Amino acid sequence: MLNGVILQKLQSLDETILELQSLGPVSAKELLQDWRTRRAVERDLQILVEVVIDICQRVIALSGQTPATTGGDAVERCIAMGAIANRDSYRQMVRFRNFIVHRYERVDEEILAEMVNRHLEDFAQFRREILAYAQRG
Questions:
Q1: What is the C-alpha separation between 75 and 1, in angstroms, rounded?
Q2: What's the CATH class of domain 4-136?
């Protein structure tokens, strides 16, 4: 089931995680004072979630199902298919993406710092689960 599109998306996921990790730990104060770092963090986090949703949509399509209508639905359907584990962190990713896209004028610096400092592993876990599913399927 692993195809070129999924591999390309996983590569993008890896690169974006590395970009964020290269910042080291970030503080809410730093993000408040440095708009460039703040914008980079916001954008990279959005990209990570978009990649997760895109991969879920691709897995759904490869299984012969109709596309999911929302990012949340895509994640839920991949959970139901056994492609990824039933983790609240995956649902939180989509909620975060919706928040950052629709409330873009001001995303709390504490939330951004929390995502970078404590939740990048969630994206790496997603990657491992998708690869394991693809090898099974």
A1: 17
A2: mainly alpha
